[in-house]
Amino acid sequence: MKTRNLGHSVLAALLASLALGFVGSRPVSALGPAVSQPRADFDARLPALAEDRGGFSLRSPKASQFARSSEVETRIPGLRLRWDGLSGSPSWVTAKPGEVLAMPFPGEPEAAAKTFLRDQAPLFGLSQEEVAGLQATAVVPSGNAGWHVHFRQTVSGIEVFGAHVVVNLRSDGAVLSAGSRLFGDLLPPGGAALDPAGAVRLALDDVYPGAAFSGEPLGDEKGLQRKVEFSGPGLGFPPRARLVVFPEAVGGRLAWEIEVAERTRYTSYRVLIDALDG
Q1: In the predicted model, is pLDDT for residue 204 greater than 80?
Q2: How far apart, in whole angstroms, are the C-alpha atoms of residue 150 and residue 128?
Q3: Main-chain dihedrals φ then ψ at residue 154, nearest 5 degrees
Q4: pLDDT of residue 268
Q5: DSSP string, 235-261
Q6: Per residue in 173-183, pLDDT tens?
Q7: 61, 210, 266, 275: which has the fewest Cβ within 10 Å?
Q8: 209-224 in b/e burial notation, b at 16+ Cβ within 10 A?
Q9: What is the pLDDT of residue 38?
């Protein structure tokens, strides 16, 4: 895997937004003079040069996904579908005006959306077990009396970094469209060899060299993702750590997601550190 020349593996840094096929970030606030110059975006999965990323595809749709898309297009003429270049799942699928992807559903919006995802699991490149791991994060009313149902992807209770899907419903539960970035074939992650304090130290060495860090936690680790905050005098907020699954071209790996900021918060970073080899 790619590394920075720092003696440790940096999977992705400077994350504040997820754009199609790209992971990156920028300074998020300017409350005073910069303590450090913003670092360039970096994602170990992508070509090093920005000019080489146009049209880049990390994962391509599987044959079973193309087969299901053909079936759906036969059933719903005028279907519009666009594939995501990072995950190989449909970044956008919608029926033409006046048509629906799935018929009205009598239950709650979340149940309607989950039923659609189960029925169309082959289109999204997921197994039924992987669909079961999708966790609803929000059910948002839409302006036309429908609903936007948001899910995040998890594996064995651990969130998959940058993986999500939204299903858009009519008021009667019929599915109008969906957009996703979902990763199939992710094995359950093992345990982390690197502890969260060690991961925070590596992240600070990368983005704020010389920053003081005591490694003192502010509480116990929480849940399967082992969420924890640390004392951070001189930093913009207490450094935060949690476990995530970092998807790659084939499979994925367990990683620590670290959030840190300098004192002024002129820059803040999200850095992913390999949880097995650091």
Answers
A1: yes
A2: 18
A3: -130, 155
A4: 93
A5: BSS--EEEEEEEE-SSSEEEEEEEEEE
A6: 999 999 999 99
A7: 210
A8: eebebeeebeeeeeee
A9: 74
Answer yes or no: are the C-beta atoms of 93 and 83 closer than 8 Å.
Answer: no
Tokens 């539960």 correspond to 173
Phi, psi of 103 (to 5 degrees): -70, 165
CB count in 10 Å sphere of residue 65: 21
* CA dihedral of residues 118, 121, 123, 126 (deg, nearest 10): 150
Query: How many angstroms separate the CA atoms of 119 and 151, rounded?
Result: 16
Q: Are 233 and 218 in contact (CB under 8 A)?
A: no
Strand partners, 165: 151, 180
Neighbours of 40 (CB within 10 A): 11
Instruction: Give the span between the Cα atoms of 116 and 225, in whole angstroms.
Output: 28
H or E, element range at 74: helix 63-75
Buried b (16+ CB within 10 A) or exposed e, 1-21: eeeeeeebbbbbbbbeebeeb
CB-count exposure of residue 207 (10 Å: 0-12, 13-18, 19+): buried
Higher pLDDT, 2 or 104: 104
- Counting residues of the chain whose pLDDT is more than 90, the rounded percentage is 75
pLDDT digits (tens, 9 = 90+) for 138-153: 999 998 889 999 999 9
pTM for the full predicted model: 0.85
Model confidence pLDDT, tens digit, residues 218-256: 999 999 999 999 999 999 999 999 999 999 999 999 999
Asked if pLDDT for residue 14 goes beyond 70, the answer is no
Determine contact, residues 179/101, Cβ cutoff 8 Å.
no
